[in-house]
Design a protein that fits this description.
The protein is an alpha/beta fold. The protein contains 13 helices and 17 strands. The strands form 5 sheets. Strands 4-10-9-8-7-5-6 form a 7-stranded mixed sheet, sandwiched between helices. A 4-stranded antiparallel sheet has the order 13-14-17-16, covered by helices on one side. Strand 1 and strand 2 form a beta hairpin. The structure holds 4'-deoxy-4'-aminopyridoxal-5'-phosphate (PMP).
Length: 412
Amino acid sequence: MVNQLNDYRCDFPILDQIVNDEPLVYLDNAATTQKPQAVIDRLVAYYQNDNANVHRGVHTLAERATAQYEAARTKVQTFIHAAASAEVIFTKGTTQSLNWVAGSFGPTVVEAGDEIMISVMEHHSNLVPWQQLAQKTGAKLRYIDLLPDGQLDLESARQVIGPKTKIVSLAHASNVLGVVNPIKTIAALVHAQGGYMVVDGAQAVPHMMVDVQALDADFYAFSGHKMLGPTGIGVLYGKQALLEQMPPVEYGGEMIDFVGLQSSTFKELPWRLEGGTPNIAGAIGLGAAIDYLTQIGMANIQAHEQALVTMALPQLQAIDGLTIYGPQDAAQRTGVIAFNLDNLHPHDLATALDMEGVAVRAGHHCAQPLMRWLNVAATARASFYLYNTEADVKTFVTAIQAAKEFFQNGTL
Ligand code: PMP
């Protein structure tokens, strides 16, 4: 099982390099992923052959660029099982998508005295925009509890989601705890109260099959760069009726229909929400990433990451003084593992791993409230993707053991 995807590693030219005299083992995929040659080639081909602005020109290159940009939208629609391509809005990424929902849709439904519900595991980009909305409207920002192992407490959700709840916004998968939240169940709870379900899918869409209709999400946000695509491109999915209700954040070129001296009319969805020249190459690159992921199959990718975690977790748990955050059972986890080694700052640990060619992240992972909940200042974090291998897990575990030895006994 673990080896079934190893062939894909050779599609990623960046992985074939030496870092600090060691072959690179890239385990920082929750931050951003590497790009397969197919995505790199697609970007180059677009700029070499077809570059033009979209939607405005009648010349051949403009028509080609427009067709490719819109084809990318349809690829996203199919990938996340949206009902219509008009429900797929291209943005800069998850952060922008969530800010648009909180900043533009939020005020159309939230009033003073209402409640907005999130959880303490949220990334800052699914937390700070809701704080801002609560402050501006006089609504109350409330938190659904977590269970001691970091999973969302469904009992708490049932208790706190009530008639005042206008919006619940949750990560589909945590970027620290490795848990997947029961979005469909929570969506049913919030819909029963007449509220809306917003989902931060940054750590889910790259790693599992996502069906926004089956989840019954009202809005769903994710980033291209975490799923083999370029940086600077992401998606805001929204149910059409709700996107219609959402005022554009930006007014200007590309999104207008008729402009008068005192007032204007706007295009229909999705273009109404995409003011200015969009990230055309980024969208086309994301389309190529989706083709690549689809060819492998999301179920295969998920199974592969599951196998890597199943292999890594017991080996990490066996290291004396190493704490893993989140559920301790691999079956309850995604490919994200946050950890600390007793008495060692995670930055020192990450630096020691880097000396062995192993790239992991250290810090608060844009989740300061979660760090406080875990009672730590920071953690180290390894995160797997489809191109990681059994050998990567071995190198990673061995490098941690060597770092522990070095910092405790001064020997390598
Ligand atoms: N939410 C989660 C759960 C994330 O992991 C990230 C990226 N670390 C984001 C939101 C923000 O994504 P971006 O920086 O691409 O906007």
